[in-house]
Specification:
Elements: H1 2-27, E1 28-29, E2 32-33, H2 35-55, E3 62-64, H3 68-74, E4 78-80, H4 87-92, H5 108-113, E5 118-126, H6 134-142, E6 145-150, E7 160-166
Parallel strand pairs: 3-4, 3-5
Antiparallel strand pairs: 1-2, 5-7, 6-7
Helix pairs in contact: 2-3
């Protein structure tokens, strides 16, 4: 009986490993994102965008990497860090990669100069709220930002979408910090 239980457990473990491997292959192939990955990415960003639309002021400026679904669903002004909707990035940001649609990226100083309310293109999308190291937290605070995490639920996996928020701006459930 113990042998059968062990075989079943080993089989389940192997199946989980094969599933994870197939998911990894389903999301990235030949150096490109697959349609399965892009579908999941877009669906996740619709969930996040709707959450933002329902909770944040309509003049909230988001800095995102890829302005598609999140911009559409949120209806908020968006700075696409890859230059899709920003002439300065499109014409002045240096080429930094070969991935289609992602070859240019806004320098951080440009995003800070534009005073984006939420900086999400360098954010974290993970199962637990992001907790930066003390030196990282201090560095961002010196620039006028700190980490916040959205928990939009609605089937979002990973669950938390974490961005940098301006300290001096109240955004829906996220208050401004006094003295910032």
């Amino acid at each position: 009986m113990l042998l059968i239980a062990g075989i079943l457990l080993l089989s389940a473990w192997n199946s989980l490993g094969l599933y994870r491997q197939s998911q990894a292959q389903a999301y990235y192939r030949w150096g490109l994102d697959t349609p399965a990955y892009l579908d999941k990415f877009a669906a996740d960003r619709v969930i996040i965008g709707r959450w933002l639309r329902d909770r944040l002021p309509p003049d909230t400026l988001l800095a995102v990497g890829g302005a598609g679904s999140i911009a559409y669903a949120s209806r908020l002004p968006v700075l696409d860090a890859f230059g899709l909707n920003d002439a300065w990035i499109a014409h002045h940001a240096p080429v930094s990669g070969t991935r289609p649609g992602h070859a240019k990226a806004a320098p951080l100083e440009y995003v800070l100069q534009r005073r984006a309310d939420l900086i999400c293109h360098i954010g974290q999308h993970q199962d637990e709220p992001y907790r930066p190291a003390a030196d990282e937290e201090q560095s961002w605070r010196a620039r006028g930002y700190h980490w916040i995490c959205l928990d939009p639920s609605g089937g979002l996996r990973p669950r938390f979408y974490c961005c940098l928020k301006r300290l001096d701006r109240a955004l829906g459930p996220f208050p401004a910090e006094l003295g910032s």
